[in-house]
What does this fold into?
Amino acid sequence: MRKYETIFILQPELSEDDIKSVTTKAQDVISTYKGECFRMDDWGIRKLAYPIKKSARGRYYYLRFDGDSALIAELERRLRLDDKVLRYQSVNITDLPERAVPEKKVEVPEIALEETVEETPAAEEAAE
It folds into this structure.
């Protein structure tokens, strides 16, 4: 079996149920084709280099797994057909040195979108 990693970008405004359905489908494909999933990380919402389908931001997911070429073909086919997925890319990392492929889970800080709230003088007076 070869080692692969896939990064896919979802639409940023998806609900938690929609996100869970896409990630569950990816894990189901891996288990159906006798692969082994090691990591599924949510990298959060990030700004895209250029707009894709009129979206300036996207929710990034990282998937690290072992499998064969049939698994990759089916996974990419399903990602391509899903309208919630903006982009995806799979890379074979079998021949990379071991130090370049960390197997232990690394904490990724969550990216929170800051909401700006303008305070009015009336709100400040009410607080006092």
